[in-house]
Design a protein that fits this description.
Strand content: under 5%
Low-confidence stretches: 213-220
Helix content: over 70%
Structural class: mainly alpha
Number of domains: 2
Radius of gyration: 27 Å
Order of helices and strands: HHHHHHHHHHHHHHHHHHHHHHH
Number of strands: 0
């Protein structure tokens, strides 16, 4: 019966990979994933090698790095499992059908457990597996290490999944499932900030400089500082480190890891049996609309053309009602702050004379690439998902008396505002910190606005060509393979614009040459590229979307 419950998911995955029209896209993304995996493996192989060759302290440094990586992965896995469990246990579209089948509640739980585990374990496969293989190959580990991996990693995954299920079940009995998922989005932003602060508080750069410690004993004590005793990543790190360093095997930690996996499975089974009915009932409750009558939205969209106002006003109202969207503002503010602080901390002042001036101008200009990357990420979250967010109500807009391209462009207004604001803050703020000349700042400001228009149109067009009306949240649509493909294309556009303008700036800054008159040509080509990708793909995508019918 358990296989019967899982068979629709397996069949759907197989059909997606075999019978879909996006097979070429999936193949491309698979190659990108393999490249990322290989790059991460090479990076970790290099880092472990650098730690390993430090005489006397190499094993301790490698072990400390392994503890930090396992702790970070476990925290991210637990948080991912909470969000996934909310969807699989309480918000899945097939729950009404599954709950009507003659299956026991235990079978239902184990089926959803496997579903939750499979959806969240990709993080360990993508980020953890190359780390573990790099450790084993670089440190010359024996078969016992790889055998311990087969036991320790699945046990850690099971504990993280069951913890996520327990937390999700408790939360939905206090709040509704949809409100809980929105709350978790906000907490996710706080988690990212907490992880950043926690990693910085550990000050890992001190570990490569023993001279900062008062004595050798203090240095070794810092390196061997253990995690909390009842912390599952500590158990896993003890087991893996023992097989890597050929130290006595920690049977107590191994026993805690295995029994912890079994105990967490029993606990999640009991908690689901206790709180599932109440939580699922609360998940069916609709939320009251508080903002749709506010006249403030009509004032916001009044400067827009008349044909755009209704659609743009609708997008602003949805934005105000959905915490999973307006909470992104906090993330954007955090990204801008961290980036500006990082720019201010660059050791550029170690250079002197003309080299210092050239370095500052070069870094200030390259910040345009960072601004383009941030704007592409915002476009993937807002413009790319603009059509997919309509869901099953898409047929209402499809039958509305409005031009297709006009409708798409009106939906892009909401995301265009944060794109321009964040892009200008990143580019102009970093330029001011680096004392960039005024003409360079002016060029970057104009380029940021034009590039935001181009990326916005590209995101809107690709999201209309590959919409996902089944996505229950905008975040899921923004993480689809088509969204990743958009990010690749958008970064190519950013690279082309940056290259063209770099040529123009170089021609302008050449001293004593006659090429300065040619400088506007590549800059004009960059602007033309942005205007083209911001306008033509939208019209073409509207034709493709409307040709599919209702």
């Amino acid at each position: 019966m358990l296989l019967t419950l899982l068979s629709p998911r397996i069949t759907g995955l197989r059909n997606t990979l075999v019978r879909t029209e996006r097979r070429g896209l999936y193949a491309f993304l698979g190659l990108v994933g393999v490249g990322f995996w290989a790059s991460l493996f090479g990076l970790m192989y290099f880092l472990v090698g650098q730690f390993w060759v430090i005489e006397g302290f190499g094993p301790f440094l490698a072990r400390k790095l392994l503890e930090m990586l396992l702790a970070s992965l476990f925290v991210m896995l637990t948080f991912s499992n909470i969000i996934t469990a909310l969807s699989t246990y309480f918000l899945s579209d097939d729950l009404e059908l599954v709950l009507g089948l003659p299956v026991s509640r235990a079978t239902f739980h184990y089926g959803r457990f496997v579903d939750t585990l499979s959806q969240s374990s990709w993080m360990m496969a993508l980020f953890g597996l190359p780390v573990f293989l790099a450790y084993g190959l670089r440190m010359g580990a024996g078969p016992s290490y790889y055998l311990s991996l087969v036991v320790a990693v699945p046990a850690l995954l099971i504990i993280a999944t069951n913890t996520g299920i327990v937390v999700a079940t408790v939360l939905v009995n206090v709040f509704s499932a949809k409100r809980t998922r929105e709350l978790m989005v906000i907490l996710g932003l706080m988690l990212v900030a907490a992880l950043f602060i926690a990693m910085r508080s550990l000050r890992p750069e001190r570990l490569v400089n023993a001279q900062e410690f008062e004595s050798l004993a203090a240095y070794l004590s810092e390196l061997q500082l253990p995690a909390p005793t009842l912390f599952p990543p500590r158990w896993a790190s003890e087991v893996l480190a023992a097989t890597l360093l050929y130290t006595p095997f920690p049977w107590i930690e191994a026993g805690l890891l295995l029994t912890g996996a079994l105990a967490s499975a029993a606990l999640s089974r009991w908690v689901v049996a206790w709180g599932f009915d109440t939580g699922w009932s609360r998940a069916q409750e609709a939320r009251a609309a508080r903002f749709y009558r506010s006249p403030g939205f009509d004032w916001i969209v009044r400067p827009l053309p008349l044909a755009w106002r209704a659609m743009a006003g609708k997008e602003f109202r949805i934005f105000a009602r959905d915490p999973s969207q307006w909470s992104q503002v906090f993330l954007l503010m955090g990204v801008c702050g961290i980036y500006l602080v990082s720019v201010q901390s660059l050791p550029i002042n170690s250079f002197q004379g003309a080299i210092l001036k050239a370095m500052k101008q070069a870094v200030a200009f390259l910040n345009l690439g960072m601004g383009g990357f941030v704007m592409a990420a915002i476009a993937a979250r807002f413009q790319f998902t603009a059509v997919s967010r309509e869901g099953r109500a898409w047929w209402v807009l499809r039958g509305a008396p409005i031009e297709p391209a006009t409708m798409l462009r009106a939906k892009a207004v909401l995301g265009l505002i944060p794109m321009i604001v964040v892009g200008l803050v990143v580019v102009i703020g970093s330029g001011l910190l680096l004392d960039a000349p005024g003409e360079l700042l002016a060029l970057e400001a104009v380029t940021t606005v034009v590039l935001a228009y181009g990326i916005s149109g590209l995101a809107l067009a690709m999201g209309a060509v590959w919409p996902d009306f089944r996505a229950d949240t905008a975040a899921r649509a923004a993480s689809s393979p088509a969204a990743v493909f958009f990010m690749v294309v958008a970064l190519v556009v950013v690279f082309l614009v940056l290259t063209l303008e770099a040529v123009g700036v170089w021609l302008y800054l050449r001293q004593g040459g006659e090429t300065w008159a040619l400088a506007p040509i590549p800059v004009a080509l960059a602007f033309a590229l942005c205007l083209f990708v911001g306008r033509w793909p939208v019209g073409r995508a509207a034709e493709i979307l409307w040709s599919r019918g209702l």
